[in-house]
# Entry
Amino acid sequence: MRSVIHKGYNLLVSQSLAHTRGKLRLVGILGAVLYPGYYVIWEFIVPLPYENLLLRLAAAAAAAPLIWEARLRLYPAFLGVYWIVATAFCLPFFFTFMMLRNDYNVFWVGSLMAAVVVLILFFPNFRVAFLVWLLGTAAAYLTELAIVGALPEIELLSTTQPLSQGQQLAAFGFVMIFLVAVTNLLNLHRRSVERSGIENINTWAATILHQTLTPISAVNLALQGIRPHVEDRPRLLAIVDSAIAEGHQAVKSAREILSFAVPPEETLEPRSVISARSAIQRAIDTYPYGISGAFERIDLIQLHAGDDFDIEAPLEPFVHVIRNLINNAMNAIGEAQQGHIQIRLERGRRQNTISFCDDACGIPTEDLPFVFESYFTGRPAGLGLGLAYCKQFMHRAGGRIAVRARKGPRPFTEFLLHFPAAQIQPGAATAAR
# Structure
């Protein structure tokens, strides 16, 4: 039950905030200015039957705190709830209530439709948008009933036969639902374009990776041709054999990662049973230290003794996940000029966990809900694809990845990789032992 509530909370809060990152300040400014500003228009320039300055000031007051978006994002749980409540009040409640008070005046009907469009743009998830719209609209109708005791007659609809008030309300509701659905379809089209962009990048990256296999294979063939001529020189022969082995391993790793680059919705079929500890050690040993700075050192990583466990997944993509985490931690250590990496394994009855923790500089609290999103990065030179790849791998391996972090005097960043307890068949081949 708690997991269901937590999932629903994340849907309402984290996803909603992710889409509005960097936009709330502008929304707050516009709301604080336009709500009282339009009072002058509808009261003096184009007078309408009903206006309410206090309600407009309340809406402006609800929008104004969003001007301080940077500070509010330090408290993501509060900001998420406040954003949803404030939007429900300022958009569906305000515009529906004013439309009812003005007896479905055409200006307010049009304004309400515009508000619905804005609402969909704020909340790209249709379920969240519909919930916010429903809450605000229901509150407006209940408020109107509490004040007047009845709803106004709708006179906008012309039909061959007179409609009852219930039929008119139903017809108006169908129009609004149609508007919400159409706007959401337009938003889905926008998101499909974004997904196409991601797929194009994946294809481009896969093409580059594929092209690197050709020169590596050519070098390997050349080395194999040289080998018979150096068999009488043991030291040189050992160097050639080592280079050939490394070349074969590079080709194998590239092919495994290339075969993994498929749409994330597909389920990953286990290809081998790998030792978590051995695979992590392989990632540690093969990471290219020293490329980005003096703080990239293998001695900064400690793989603690603990219960090893098996993972049903391809070896090289998992090693690539660990390398991504090492790379992020090394970048943080270089930025903070301090820190170490601690890796721990814990075996459980239902799930096994890898804890990957560094104590460099932490991650801002407001960034935590977005770190696994494609293209989100906290570094100017970052692409925002590494952690998205990690999440994709964990999903397809039947597991999940989570993060927690803290900035301040005792900063840390910890990634938790949860895998289902593997049901290993007797005699199964195990890689990376």
Observations:
- The CA atoms of residues 70 and 140 lie 31 Å apart.
